[in-house]
Amino acid sequence: MPTVLVTGANRGIGLGFVRQYATEGWEVIACCRSPQSADDLNALATQSATSSGGRVQVEQMDVADHASVDALAKKYAGKPMDVLINNAGVPGPRGDNREFIFKQMFGTIDYAAWDDVFRINTMGALKVSEAFAENVAASAEKKIVAVSSTMGSIQEGTMPVFIYGSSKAASNWVVSMMAHELKDRGIIAMTFCPGHVRTDMGGPEAPVEVEDSVSGMRKIIAGLTLDDTGSFKRFDGETVAW
Ligand SMILES: NC(=O)c1ccc[n+]([C@@H]2O[C@H](COP(=O)([O-])OP(=O)(O)OC[C@H]3O[C@@H](n4cnc5c(N)ncnc54)[C@H](OP(=O)(O)O)[C@@H]3O)[C@@H](O)[C@H]2O)c1
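# NAP complex -> structure
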């Protein structure tokens, strides 16, 4: 049974990954900040334990809390992990209230908020990758993927949300460098734009369903080879310009 670790697994795209991998018979290590209130995820774990599908293990991990990342890595030391999905992320100040989103606009940046977003979206993904790289290297598939955004693309990003966009651009750089650093160990590192997806972050008007975004990314993940390391793809397979 192959194993996947997913961060930010309690809702949105992360929960979608857990549901689909579990249905396909994978062992899923589903990480979230607050397992005690992760009702949908806990229900999925109970359901998968009683069906013929995969096994879902719910684990506490806040990607911004390095002690929690190290503690989980210690618990799973020596366990091969085929796919590591760095999905956890935050949008930073935003919302329907224009004053709120202005905190990401030139001239009115909320620098304290930027600290928090960078710690989660950029540093968090790198810290988790460092902590579990040995597990990935010991697996059959050896894949580390990030759920990033076209908003982090220098060439394609058009929305001037400085905080979120820069955190994803930096996350893309991190993936690109990990691809170089980890190639000798046979690890494939790549990054995705999941599309504009109907989640808490994407909003109720977003055109892409979680199920379609996740199945698109899973199909791409399944076909990845070392030739794809360092790539940036949309959930539908299109290449995104860096
Ligand atoms: N939806 C879109 O249209 C869209 C577009 C482009 C990229 N993305 C990216 O896709 C990823 C998933 O987004 P989504 O749409 O599913 O968003 P979402 O519904 O808001 O879910 C975000 C997930 O990240 C978790 N998270 C936040 N901070 C965390 C931390 N410090 N440690 C661990 N988990 C943390 C949240 O946990 P809590 O419940 O504890 O907050 C939640 O599970 C993000 O990286 C996002 O930037 C989304």
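# post-check
The chain is about 40% helix and 15% strand.
Helices lie at 12-23, 39-50, 66-75, 98-101, 111-137, 162-182, 210-223.
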